[in-house]
Amino acid sequence: MTENKTLPHVEKIDEYRYRIPKTGNMNTDGIIYADEEMMNDILTDDSIAQVANVACLPGIVGNSIAMPDIHWGYGFPIGGVAAFDVNEGVVSPGGVGYDINCGVRLLKSDIEKGEMKKNTGRLLDVLFRNIPSGVGSHRKDLKLSRKEFEEMMEKGASWAIQKGLGDRDDLACIEEEGKIQGAEPDAISNKAFERGKDQLGTLGSGNHFVEVGIVSEVYDETAACAMWLHKDTVTVLVHTGSRGLGHQVCDDSIVKMLDASRKYGIALPDRQLCCAPIKSPEGQAYLSAMACAANFGFTNREIITHWVRETFLEVFRKSPREINMRLVYDVAHNVAKMETHTVKGAQMKVCVHRKGATRAFPAHHTDVPSQYADIGQPVLVPGDMGRCSYVLVGREKSLLESFGSSCHGAGRVMSRNQAKKVARGRSIYDELKTRGILVKAASEGTLVEEIPDAYKNVSHVVEIVHGAGICTKVAKLKPLAVVKG
Amino acid sequence: MKAFTFFEHTADVGILAQGKTLGKLFSNSATALFDFITDLKSVEKKTTRTIELECYDREELLVRWLSELLFIHEASHLLLVHFDITFIRGGRLRAEASGEPYKEGKHQIFNLVKAVTYHQIKIHKEHGIWTARIILDV
Hints:
The complex is a heterodimer of chains A (485) and B (138).
Chain A: E1 11-14, E2 17-20, E3 30-33, H1 36-42, H2 47-54, E4 60-74, E5 76-85, E6 90-91, E7 103-112, H3 113-130, H4 146-155, H5 157-162, H6 190-196, E8 209-218, H7 221-226, E9 233-240, H8 243-263, E10 276-277, H9 281-316, E11 327-332, E12 334-343, E13 346-355, E14 358-359, E15 378-381, E16 389-394, H10 396-401, E17 405-406, H11 416-423, H12 428-434, E18 438-441, H13 444-449, H14 458-468, E19 471-484
Parallel strand pairs in A: 3-4, 18-19
Antiparallel strand pairs in A: 1-2, 2-3, 4-5, 5-13, 6-10, 7-9, 7-11, 8-9, 8-19, 12-13, 14-17, 15-16, 16-19
Chain B: E1 4-8, E2 13-19, H1 22-37, E3 47-54, H2 58-76, E4 78-89, E5 92-101, E6 115-116, E7 122-126, E8 129-137
Antiparallel strand pairs in B: 1-2, 2-8, 3-5, 4-5, 6-8, 7-8
Helix pairs in contact in B: 1-2
C-alpha cells in the first residue's frame, strides 16, 4: 500500500464538522472538527491525507477523527483520535508519538492580580532558577538509582508524593490518578533508562513551559466554582512530558513494530504507522513500556508542581495551604488507553489513541473525579504564550462522537524556520512585555520559534469544539509570566 | 551536489541529504543532524564510538543509524562531528563516529531533537547520486 499522495475528498457535514468519505483502503470515514475558515487552513498541508491513512489501519472502530488543532505530524496527524477493537485492532507507537504522556496540568491559587503584578518579575526569576529547563539541565538534588527509577515508573505520581515531592491531594485530580496500569519496567530498554535517568523533574525545550496566568473570564460559573477558579486570581499551567525516556521508548518500539507489521502482514501506508495487534506479544510489550513512560510524565509534572509551590512560598511568603494552591486537573495528550465505549449501540473495549488530543469525559462518567462528577472532566487547552489558554469541560457528545476526546492546544501553523523569518529584527521579549507578559527562555532560539504568530488562534480552536458540543467553555486564562524550555 | 539541506515541515524539520556513495549519504545525513544540533566548527574529534547495526532495508538502516547517534548524544552528552562508514551493504552497517563531550562555554546547542522518524523515509539513486529525505521530530 502506498501513501495517499493527493488530498482525499472532503465534504461538509455541518458548521463544525467535515467528513472524508471512506474510499480505497480506508476501513472507515475520517471526521474533522473544523469550521470553513479553519478547514481552508487545514487543507494547506497533508494532514487530511494522514487522517485517511489512519482510517486504513486494521480494526479501527468508529471514525478516524481529527480535532481543530490538527496539523501535519509524522504518520498520524497531531490532533488525531483513533480507537481500535481490543480483539481485532492494533496499537501503534506512532499513534501516541515520541513524547509519551506529554500533557498539561493547571494549578489555582488565591493570589490576586494586584499582589501578583508587584511580584511577577521576581516570581519568574525564581521559577526559572528552581525548574530545570533547556538542554541538559537537571536539579543536582534529584538523582535516582536504577531501582528507584523502576519503582517510579511503576507507581507514577504517587512515587513523587512518597518522596516528599508532591501533595497527596493532587492524585484524585490527575488522569488515571497519575498511574497507568500495566507498567512493566522490564519492558524498558537500557537505552531508554540511560536517556531518561537524569531527566526527571525537567521541563525540556520546544513548546514545553510553566506559565503563570490569571483567570480573565468565566463563562460557566458553576463549573468554574467546582474547580475553585475565580476571576482575577492567579493560576499556573505546567506543560511537559516523559522527556528522553518517552522518546526512546517510542523509538525502540517502532523498530519492533516495523518487524511486527511484516510478521502479521499489516500493509502500511507509511512506515511511521507501524503497529501490531493489541493482544500480540509486541502490542502488549509496547503498552507496558508506554505505561512506564506515561507514569514518568505524570511524576515529572508532579515534581515540577512541587517546585512551583516552593517558588510561590519563597516569593509570596505564604505556604501552598495558605493560598489554596490546588491542582485543578492534569491531562495527558499523547497516550493510548484501554477504555470502554459504546460503538453502534454496544459496549466495547477499545484502545483509544490520542495524539495531540485530550480526554474529555462528561459529567457522571465513572472516570471523572468525584468533585467534578456533576460538571464533567476539566479539559485544559493551552494557547501560545502571547494570547490565552482555556479551561473547558467534557460533554456527553464527546462520548457519542469522539471517544470522549477533544482538542489539546492551538496547533502550529508555521514551521520553525518560518517563525524565525517572521521574528527577524523583532524583540519578542519586548513585544510580549508590552502586552503585560514576561518571558524567560533557556534559549533565545526557542523564544523565536514559539512566537504567537506560529500558532493558530486557540480561541478559534476552542470555539469549534464548543460549537460542536464535545466540550464547553468554563474559563479563559491570560498569561503573565512564562518559563520556556 | 550539496551534502545536505534542510526543508520545512509544519512542526518539525526535514533533512535532504546527498552522497556519491551510500556510505557518503549516511555520513552526510549524520553531519546534517549534528549541524542542526550545534555549531560543528566548535567540535573537535577527541573520542570515537564504533556502531554496528542490522535492519530490514537501507531506509530503516538510515533511521536507525541517526537514532543511534542521537541516543549517544543525549545519553553520553557527546557532540559528534566526523563519521566514517566502514561497511554498508543491504541493511547492515559498521561505522565510526567521532566528537567530544558537550562543554558549557565552548559549545552551543541550537536545537533539541526528540527523534528521527520513519515518516515518508525515502532513499533513491539518480544519475549516480544517492538522495535521502528524513524528518526529525523536534
